[in-house]
Amino acid sequence: MKFKNLLLILIVFMLTACEDYLNEPPLDRVTEADVWNDKALMDTYFFQIYENMPWDYLKDFGGGAGGGAHRDALSDIARSTYSWTPATNSFRPGNWGTANNSWPLDWWGYFNLWKINYSIENLEVISENVLSDEERNNRLGEMYYLRAFCYFEMVKRYGGVPIILEAQNPDTTPEEELFPARNTEKEVYDQILEDAQAAFDALPENWPSQEGRATKWAAKALESRAALYAGSIAKYGSVQLDGVVGVPVSDAESYYQIALNASQTIIENSGHSLFNQYTDPTENYTRLFLDESGIEAIFTKKWIPFEKGHSYDLRNVPYSYRLDWGSSMSPTKQFIDSYEVLSTGLLPNEPGSGFDENNPWENRDPRLKATIITNNDMFQGSPVEIWYGTEINGEIDTGTGTGVGKDGIGIHPDATKTGFYVRKYLEDGSNPLFIPEFYSGQDCLIFRLGEIYLNAAEAAFELGNEGLARDFVEPIRTRAGLTQNLRLEPFSGDELRDRLRNERKLELAFEDHRYWDVRRWRIAEEALSIQVQGVRTLRHINAAGEETFTYETFDAEPQQMNFFERHYYMPIGQDRRNNNSNLIENPGY
């Protein structure tokens, strides 16, 4: 069925290539009447909207400002490996402003919103000879969902943006509507929640034989996430520009309550459950992202290996396993230090943690080895050799092919810069796979039940119900294979809040959450203004030929990361303001 869905997407590219969607219906190869009188053509048009949504964090990072980095490489959990990229030279040092409105951060989604509003208007008057009432309502639900998601992707970047709910036409739309001012951030969040509810009411539980289309539970998951963001902005942010950015603090509790209610509804009624198909917790967490099971997945972007795939493997495998590129994200030591010691439930730097400096990656949260490749871990049939040199008889050899490991720091400029590689989402096997460009087929998990439990835990905590927050975080920690402090018993107040946030960082790592989370909590000025550290591994060979390793921490990035207060909102940009003089710029730009 995935092939059939993607075939439709390929058809739509042929039907709508090189068209300008902003002013006229993009239908030069078929007539407008053809599309709105044929269900298959209509769905092809809708699939084009899906294809242009910004939700897929696995797809190729492409060129522009994000060249050489996925978005998580702009956060504190990983750095961009490549020194030449704007991710390294502009975004991470904080040297960006109105001239940097480009991927991987910028997304001004009105090109998609025009198509969505145009589709809603046509669906509302469509003949019952073309679609039954149920089919029509289901597709209206899709459009409300996609519209809500578009506005969510913009509000989390820019704050308030113009709310446009009709397909504009420069020949007939009044000028004041064609060039609207920005709505307040609160108004945008309220519109998102209104559309998400309309989508929930209209969407089906599932689309038989059609994977990848939005369902009512995808709509409820968007409500959960968006309301949580709004609550965070209200509680931890500040209102500026008469509400164009910021949400009144008086609204925080109501948004958190919406997030909690939506999360509970999904957990109790959706039929989804946490993925628990393998007895070993490391294997279970690894397979969650590879098995393409619908058990936990609420909404996914579907990919087909070899036919219509992405290049996540090509971009992220360790150095010696690459065809080209490889190792684009180098995980930070600060991130690895966020994983608890398994036997105590404490972080490595906490007193009594039991952390073993001689075996630093053992006896740790099982998700560590499912998310990160550490020195000498097995991957695709052989150990990943990350040591920077080999010491024999007091002499350290750092020569290529003799002293440095095949994946070690310094073996090549494209090898890890921190002493770690990403494992999550990578295909594994008994031999090196050497997966070419566009041949990866892992589906991108956009909403899954694990996030919903964490949304519920955070919302419950912010509403003052620590017991309920513990109830929701416990299943996540139990599934992860942790055995100590499952309910985070030793912590309360701000310490419990920070532990819940840490849990989110680990469980949702490399799923495009961390950068946005620290922004909405308004802690990015601290979390993203750090000197990134890594670990240098030295191999030792004794007289008997036995191999041991020692480890040292080092500064793994030439300059400190910086996040400044203005970066909590992206700039609207001069180009957009030139097109619409009613768009005021965000503070600090």
TrEMBL record:
Residues 316-589 form the RagB/SusD domain. Residues 1-17 form the signal peptide. It holds the Pfam family SusD_RagB. Gene3D superfamilies: 1.25.40.390. PROSITE patterns: PROKAR_LIPOPROTEIN. Its main location: membrane. Residues 79-227 form the SusD-like N-terminal domain. It is found in: Cell outer membrane. Keywords: Cell outer membrane, Membrane, Signal. InterPro entries: SusD-like_N, SusD_RagB_dom, TPR-like_helical_dom_sf. SUPFAM superfamilies: TPR-like. One of its GO terms (cellular component) is cell outer membrane. Belongs to the SusD family. This is RagB/SusD family nutrient uptake outer membrane protein.
